[in-house]
Write a structure and sequence with these properties.
Radius of gyration of chain A: 23 Å
Number of strands of chain C: 20
Oligomer: heterotrimer
Helix content of chain A: over 70%
Strand order of the largest sheet of chain A: 1-2
Strand content of chain C: 15-25%
Shape of chain A: elongated
Chains: A mainly alpha, B mainly alpha, C alpha+beta
Number of helices of chain C: 16
Structural class of chain C: alpha+beta
Distance between the termini of chain A: 5 Å
């Protein structure tokens, strides 16, 4: 029922309470059981990742706790010191369960941090470009073009080669390759929106730039932004894993899920599946649940899909 | 339109210039290539000779000016490692990468659009849910891992397809391509599928999203009310509208497919430019890295330009005048 | 049911697509290292030399254990302290039909230092020659400035090209025009980064190779290489990744062959500076006195390392714990040097003696893309050192970055993992480059700047002694002195492993060469 223009109208009609949209949002989100399930799993993953130091049997980043004599033990094996590797151990004698919990922290942290920073930068620049047009648009879109001219994986490769290893550095690299996508997406949508009547109307009412930008243009740019962001968080985590596969990215002493998979894949063929398999499953569950939540969010947030 | 294109080209030259400078400095910052090339048992005199032979004894700005002067004359320098013109080396490898990228894109579109349309047309059906679950898996799995799994299953365990390399080539319309022989096709199938997987998921999602949005639009109701068949509405009107984001994304992604071929080419030992660039980065073979970047960026710029022009053709609401760019 | 049906249908479909070209006399080889040129004088790089050995011959060849055997020269001797005489093989023809003779040797020696833009020249092996005289078409003499016993070894690395191609640029070799040698195979095609195709030289002077057509495929990814072998796309691969060895061993279709290599993996220690940048107290502040200058501390590090565990757990048994610079049997290797036993208590005691009862802080640097399992080895050593009190951080870097930071003039590291392959098969090679005091022509890869006048003088004497027996004694003594002083901390010697399809055999080589003419059907 509510079209775009109606949505803008809601603001000016004071009958809508502030609670209603939120309640409606929750109700609509809960329509999909899959999405609710995904959200629950995601919440569990986030809690597990945050609480990793408390619940892990071992600190996998403390090299002194590792012994290569405990290396490559299959799941359920007990070590010499009476410690049980429920998910096996990797070639360094690292407990896979602990490594996965810590790895989740890093993968999620890297993916979310880089996406948040990139979305903020990308949205701000993309909106500004579309709204102001002219020289500002030209300047911003030129920078975006330069950025997009560099193939993402190559920028990350060269950037990390120059910067060296580290979590902060990989976030910098991921933001650098991602922000332009958001900027372009937002600008593309905003260009179309800007021509619509409601913006003209807002302008006629002499509303401020900031108000038009953030209260009117931005909400309408959100749906595609969420699609892209969903894809990009998953993409960021996968890209980080790929960079690890190519030999740069995170330091090997503090592996992310991607690095654990990369380290373990060479053992897949020799039957030591658990080194690569369990981190792979953890990564898969994480990304799938993010995507399930993202999918439903998009459907709910998209004003054009409202019946 | 012409003014728009000319302006774009001018700006592109500036982009290329800025980028060559960034890459030049970036590679310089990574390390000293001489350490990689020189024989381990070479002494100091031999090291000095190599540094001089490769022109690395000059200050960086002088090396860069020299590069620019030669680049303007069409010479992008000689590879440190191969002693062959960097441009030639890359062009030699380009057909292999392009054919891999095109094959991957064809797979992604040929499977992605129909699947996405179905998923968007009947979003509540089991098939649609299966398609969406598959698409989520598609970009949840890291490319390199899927590649290794494909090799393990189809080449090693089942033995149906060759595991690595590029097959025999044949000439079609003056282009030497392996897509024209059975042997070549059997070699390209696995790597192309591997490379396509991510884009396939993306195309499915975009098509489905577009489909769902458009099906609710008034023009669909109008068209149905006018008595047009559902088939005609979907395949003519809706399809045309959902092509807009797909064209944009496919255009942008073609470049990224070419770049991402780096991973697939490494896994499948595919003799393309991606493998060359990885080797060159490992070897700090600066002339090849810079030339590769210049060439890919030029390709990107051309692709972007085409996308923008197409965009304005497909969506009359966006005029090129807005993209003075 | 449905699954089986699908599998069968797909099988029929794909069967039609798979190329069935493997004739009995064709051989496809999967090479793990990239080949950068066909020009045998352009890039002094082992994979290039390995390929060149198919097309070209050298005056002297190295056998699989790197002992010198006649090649294009049938005999050689020193006629006085500074003159060597080589007798050349008669009746040898180049692939273009022209006769081989002394003129070709002279042309080759002129070409070696001439090759333009060479990123790594072979001239380090020809520099000692000050004068070349042709005595007759099949006798040639070389003069050196000083007595130079290494000349035969050095010349065993130089591929002989035809006199017609003295001035041919590298591109002519890559294109095939100048790739004319006397070797067992003729050049057919080179596709950079992909493959090299060769065909048998039916007029070869030595044992004729079994294979009519040989394709050397470049497959640098280890897993991809193993997969290509398992899928039957290649019949032999080199550099078998250690993780796959256990699986390949149990595969009835695959044979493995191995030989201990000339490559030592070791730790270089900064024993030069008074303060070393990564030798710190436990809080991270640089120690006022570099503890690594103390021999006892270096020995403690050596004792703290469990080499057997590294060999078994990380190298999958494909390495041998090392106590010297080259394995026994190589020229100049001392049979007295045994790997230091794992002794953490002894290490702690030594640290206490040296005045570090509570240890100190250290960072171990290493490459992550250079040697088999390099990154895993340093990761395993870190905790071993930490357990005796030396709190060790581990940092791995790409070789490009690692090598430029760790070498002259920056010498940025305190303790680092490096490898050394002795191309000449002589212990003089690591002594000269790794352990000799840094000076022109010496210590070019001495990243710890170790310096010991006794080692230097023994080495100098050895390098001026033409008599092989005496020279070997001197080299052994120099090595023993250096190792007793813990000049470097040896870890292990690598084992080179090849895997072939069943029915083929390969003579494994210490120099890591993969030569198609040594691949034969198994008897």
């Amino acid at each position: 029922m509510a079209t775009v223009i109606d949505r803008d109208g809601i603001e000016t009609v004071p009958t809508a309470t502030t609670e209603a949209p939120l309640r409606r949002f929750v109700a609509e989100f809960a329509e999909s059981r899959l999405a609710v399930g995904g959200l629950a799993v995601l919440a569990m993953i986030i809690v597990a990742a945050l609480a990793a130091p408390l619940i892990s049997p071992q600190d996998p980043y403390d090299l002194n706790q590792l012994d290569i004599l405990d290396g490559r033990l299959p799941p359920g094996t007990e070590s010499a010191t009476g410690f049980t590797f429920w998910l096996g151990s990797d070639d360094q004698g690292r407990d896979m369960l602990s490594a996965i919990l810590y790895g989740l922290r890093i993968s999620l942290g890297v993916g979310v941090m880089s996406a948040v920073i990139a979305v903020v930068i990308g949205t701000a620049t993309g909106l500004a470009a579309a709204y102001f047009g002219g020289r500002i648009d030209t300047l911003i879109m030129r920078i975006v073009d330069i950025q997009l001219s560099f193939p993402a994986i190559l920028v990350a490769l060269i950037l990390l080669a120059v910067l060296g290893q580290g979590t902060g550095k990989i976030i910098v690299a991921l933001v650098t390759v991602q922000w332009a996508y958001y900027a372009r997406t937002v600008r593309g949508t905003a260009l179309v929106e800007r021509r619509k009547e409601y913006v003209e109307a807002a302008r006629c009412l002499a509303l401020g730039h900031a108000r038009i930008l953030f209260r009117h243009l931005l909400p309408n740019c959100l749906p595609p932004l969420i699609v892209v962001a969903t894809v990009q968080v998953a993409h960021a985590i996968a890209l980080e894993a790929t960079l690890s596969f190519l030999g740069i990215g995170l330091p090997i002493t503090e592996p992310s899920l991607g690095l654990l998979i990369a380290n373990g894949y060479e053992y897949m063929m020799s039957g030591k599946y658990w080194i690569s398999f369990f981190p792979g499953v953890a990564l898969l569950i994480t990304i799938v649940s993010i995507n399930l939540v993202g999918d439903q969010l998009r459907d709910v947030l998209n004003p054009r899909l409202r019946k | 339109m012409t003014v728009f294109i000319i302006r774009r080209v001018m700006q592109s030259i500036l982009v290329l210039f800025v980028m060559s400078l960034l890459v030049f400095v970036g590679v310089y910052a990574i390390g000293n290539p001489v350490e990689i090339f020189v024989a381990a048992d070479a002494d100091q005199a031999e090291r000095a000779r190599v540094i001089a032979a490769l022109g690395l004894d000059k200050p960086l700005w002088e090396q860069y000016l020299l590069f620019i002067r030669n680049a303007v004359l069409g010479d992008l320098g000689k590879s440190f490692v191969f002693n062959q013109p960097a441009l030639g080396l890359i062009l030699q490898r380009m057909p292999a990468t392009l054919e891999l990228a095109v094959a991957a894109m064809v797979i992604a579109l040929a499977l992605g659009i129909p699947l996405g349309m179905y998923a968007g047309f009947r979003p509540q059906s089991r098939v649609a849910k299966a398609i969406m679950a598959g698409s989520i898996l598609g970009f949840s799995l890291p490319t390199f891992w899927v590649g290794l799994m494909l090799i393990m299953v189809f080449a090693v365990e089942l033995g149906w397809l060759p595991s690595t390399g590029r097959g025999a080539t044949a000439e079609v319309f003056g282009i030497e391509t392996s897509l024209a022989t059975w042997d070549g096709l059997s070699h390209v199938l696995l790597p192309a599928l591997n490379l396509a997987l991510f884009k396939l998921s993306l195309v499915i999602r975009l098509t489905r999203a577009g489909m769902r949005e458009n099906m609710l639009m008034d023009y669909v109701k109008f068209a149905r009310a006018k008595g047009l068949t559902m088939r005609r509405v979907v395949f003519v009107h809706v399809l045309k509208n959902i092509m807009i984001p797909i064209v944009t994304v496919v255009g942008l992604e073609l470049g990224s497919v070419i770049a991402f071929a780096v991973v697939t080419e490494t896994v499948f030992a595919w003799p393309g430019m991606g493998k060359l660039i990885i080797d060159s980065i490992n070897n700090l073979d600066r002339p090849v890295i810079v030339a590769y970047m210049l060439i890919t960026v030029t390709m990107f710029i051309v692709i972007n330009l085409v996308v923008d022009v197409l965009y304005s053709v497909l969506d009359p609401r966006v005029r090129l005048a807005d993209m003075k760019g | 049911m449905a699954k089986r049906w699908l599998k069968a249908a797909l099988g029929v479909f794909f069967a039609g697509m798979v190329c069935l070209s493997a004739a009995a006399q064709d051989l496809t080889v999967g090479l793990g290292a990239n080949v950068t040129s066909i020009d045998p004088h352009f890039h002094n790089l082992s994979p290039n030399s390995s390929v060149a050995a198919h097309i070209f011959d050298r005056l002297i060849h190295q056998d699989e254990k790197q002992r010198l055997v006649p090649g294009l020269a049938t005999e050689w001797k020193a006629i006085d302290a500074t003159t060597w005489e080589f007798k050349l093989r008669k009746g040898v023809k180049f692939h273009d039909g022209s006769e081989f003779g002394a003129e070709d040797v002279v042309a080759t020696l002129k070409r070696v230092p001439w090759v333009p833009n060479s990123p790594s020249s072979f001239s380090i092996y020809t520099r000692a020659i000050t004068e070349t005289t042709i005595v007759d078409p099949y006798t040639i003499r070389f003069k050196t400035k000083e007595p130079y016993p290494l000349l035969p070894v050095d010349l065993s690395t130089i591929n002989i090209v035809s006199r017609k191609h003295e001035q041919s640029p590298t591109g002519d070799f890559n294109g095939g025009k100048a790739a004319i040698g006397t070797g067992p195979f003729k050049f057919v095609e080179y596709v950079p980064g992909d493959r090299i195709v060769l065909t048998r030289n039916d007029d070869y002077w030595g044992d004729k190779p079994h294979w009519q057509k040989v394709t050397l495929k470049l497959i640098t990814n280890g897993a991809a290489r193993v997969n290509a072998l398992l899928a039957g796309d290649v019949q032999i691969i080199d550099q078998v990744p250690t993780v796959d060895i256990a699986k390949l061993k149990t595969n009835a279709d695959i044979n493995l062959t191995r030989i201990v290599s000339n490559r030592l993996i070791y730790l270089h220690v900064d024993s030069f500076r008074d303060q070393s940048p990564f030798a710190t107290d436990k809080a991270g502040a640089v120690l006022p006195n570099n503890p690594l200058k103390d021999r006892r501390v270096r020995l403690a590090i050596s004792k703290a390392i469990n080499r057997q565990a590294i060999v078994e757990r990380i190298m999958d048994g494909e390495a041998i714990p090392a106590g010297g610079l080259l394995p026994e049997g190589f020229f100049g290797a001392s049979p007295k040097l045994k790997a230091e036993a794992f002794d953490p208590e002894g290490a702690k005691k030594l640290l206490t003696e040296a005045g570090y009862p509570n240890g100190f802080g250290l960072t171990l640097h290493g490459p992550n893309d250079r040697y088999p399992n390099d990154e895993k080895i340093i990761q395993a050593i870190g905790p071993m050192l930490s357990r005796v009190g030396i709190d060790t951080k581990v940092v791995s870097l790409p070789w490009a970055t690692f090598a430029s930071q760790g070498s002259a003039p920056t010498y940025a590291f305190s303790l680092m993992l490096v490898g050394w392959g002795s191309g000449t098969g002589e212990v003089s090679s690591p002594l000269r480059s790794l352990i000799a005091t840094v000076a022109p022509g010496r210590g070019a890869s001495n990243r710890g700047r170790y310096s010991n006048p006794k080692v230097d003088s023994l080495l100098q004497e050895a390098l001026n002694t033409v008599d092989d027996e005496k020279r070997e004694k001197l080299l052994q003594e120099a090595t023993e002195v250096a190792m007793a002083d813990q000049a470097i901390i040896p870890l292990h010697y690598q084992v080179n492993v090849w895997a072939t399809r069943k029915g083929l055999s390969y003579t494994p080589r210490a120099d890591e060469y993969t030569l198609a003419h040594f691949v034969r059907p198994a008897r």
